Amino acid sequence: MPKVALYNMEGASVGEIELKDEVFGVEVNKDALYQVTKMQLANKRQGTQSTLTRAEVRGGGAKPWRQKGTGRARHGSSRSPIWTKGGVTFAPKPRDYSYTLPKKLRRLALKSALSSKVQENNIIVMDSLALSEAKTSEMVKVLKNLKVEDKALLVIPSKDVTVERAARNLPNVKLAFVNTINVLDILNYKRFIITQDAARLVEEVYG
Question: The whole model's pTM is what?
Fold first, then answer.
């Protein structure tokens, strides 16, 4: 079982915590990470792009000039894709890019992402996170004590309005709950900060 240091809100080490091998100590599967990340990015696409085909562009009903005798190439419509102001060849239309992957593959990717943070020493486990006030300065103080200067994903067990309000104005910090963590966020944020209770809940849910 991987052992990591346990920190309090003052940034002092208060012991160690053992994390489950089944969640935080698996062999990192890069292919699973790639597939799930690709799926998440595809599912985030709006798919609302739309341009006009030659059939939808206004005008172009009359033949521009007669078929023969002008010395110019024959044309049937001024809205052909090769004309200025013409339609678009293979015009993109609204579509749904989303798809799903097997649950086992998605779980493997999540465990791989969590394990990679442990292997890279980019995980910080806190004994608790209880702020006295819902102020950004309070959260900044905690991050400063933990010496976190990079982008950080902060995971707590469940909804906490005080912590949410204190963290929402920090551009480099994203707050997540145990049931909302995902591979894309874990990989996008360099530091992974999680409370002890949240870590145990992650092990229980995904172990």
Answer: 0.85
